[in-house]
Amino acid sequence: MNIVLQNLTKKFPGHGRKAAEEVVAVNDFTFEIPDGKLVGLLGPSGCGKSTTLNLICGLIRPSSGQIFFGSQDVTSLPPEHRGVGMVFQNYALYPHLTVLQNILFPLQNLKGKNRPSKAEMQKRALDAAKLVQIEELMERKPGELSGGQQQRVAIARALVKMPHVLLLDEPLSNLDARLRLQTREEIRKIQKATGITTIFVTHDQDEAMSISDQIVVMKAGVIQQIGKPQEVYDNPANLFVARFLGTPPINLFAGTVRDSKLYLGTNCVLDAPGIPDQEVWAGVRPEGFLLQPDGPLICQLTGIEVMGRDISVVSTHPACQAAAIRSIIGSDTRVDTSQPTVRFALKPGKVFLFRKDTEERLACQLR
Ligand code: ADP
Ligand code: MG
To answer: Which tens digits make up the pLDDT trace of 12-33?
Structure first.
């Protein structure tokens, strides 16, 4: 089932009396989550991700705007009638109940004709447990499980009602690095196997990029960009999106366009045809640097970091806005570390220009 958000807005009153203290947690969201897809909501802490999920599942009501599940307007429907499964950031299992009892809990709360028979409940609980591979742990209490296992119980508990929509609010934040990786792959597998329309909230760009069909990048309650992860990475709409996506992060330079040429400091690095003379922010992806003995970008070499498959050349440049430039090159490339300088050519497709005032991307064909 697809989900449509139409001009969805949520304002929270400030604690003081002044209207200025009001927080617009979700500001005029309009977008569609296609049926059966996994959409990643991505943005820094406080940008309105949890509020968006709480609006979709019905725990809070919007200040204005509408929410549709398929053709049905669910905006004023209570949460229990929306057919939504939700896994919260702190997935609070009931400590005194076993895994099985925890998973059964949402079913036992159903009333009237919606309440399945006892045998049906048992079967659905076991099916959900099998999906997340915890069927061996059914008699344990949450305290006897690892973080990853507890997380799976929380997911099974969300799946047992066979929801049309699955909402996951930073579901991996309590897991260690290795388990996060493993669990996110499992969530993706389960989502594909069940075909449930899913919204996955995270502040971790790597996580969102790796499992989402589409990402929605947010900042301070406002959608910045929506698209397939690779498309957004390759075509950021503004400086915020460019900086938020990518590890290592994009390298930011103060640049100047003069006579259709792009300068970083005094180095003339690329042709920028059609762009009026102006100061710009220039972002260069770490993979956008080519080592070249006579390359136009002249940097002071700090050192190299070997990271298995790749080498990261660390250097500095007067126009760079960070303490160091990190450029990634193949590990088969030799870097002469006895030299004080290192020179690069830039790959035009990996360089983005942004207006200094609005930080919007400048449409241009660099070469
Ligand atoms: P995220 O999940 O992206 O970290 P939230 O959706 O939790 O962000 O919060 C978005 C903004 O709304 C924040 O500024 C937060 O302080 C504010 N906010 C969230 N819930 C409430 C509330 N119940 N009352 C007042 N302000 C709130
Ligand atoms: Mg949150």
So the answer is: 987 766 666 889 999 999 999 9
How many structural domains compose the chain? 2
* 147 located within any domain: yes
Ligand nearest to the CA of 170: 2
Q: What does the pLDDT read at residue 16?
A: 66
CA distance 367 to 349: 8
Q: How far is CA 120 from CA 124, 126, 155, 194, in A?
A: 6, 10, 19, 19
Its domain, for residue 99, covers 3-243
Looking at the structure, tell me whether residues 307 and 219 fall in a common domain: no
Q: Which atom of ligand 1 is nearest to the CA of 53?
A: 6
- One domain, residues 205 and 254: no
> What pTM was estimated for this model as a whole?
0.93
Which ligand 1 atom sits closest to the C-alpha of 221? 10
Are residues 139 and 265 located together in one domain of the fold?
no
What is the best residue among 11, 12, 45 to mutate for testing ligand 1's pocket, by most ligand atoms within 8 Å of CB? Answer: 12
How many angstroms separate the Cα of 296 from the Cα of each of 245, 299, 320, 342?
26, 10, 15, 10
- Kindly report the length of the chain: 367
Q: Is the residue at 363 inside a domain? A: no
* Residue 32, domain member (yes or no): yes
Q: What are the pLDDT digits (tens) for 185-221?
A: 988 998 999 899 999 999 999 999 999 999 999 999 9
Average pLDDT, the chain: 93
Q: Are 80 and 107 in contact, with CB atoms under 8 Å apart?
A: no
Same domain, 341 and 209: no
Both 211 and 314 in a single domain? no
Does any domain span residue 118?
Answer: yes
Least confident interval from 46-50, 334-338, 349-353: 334-338
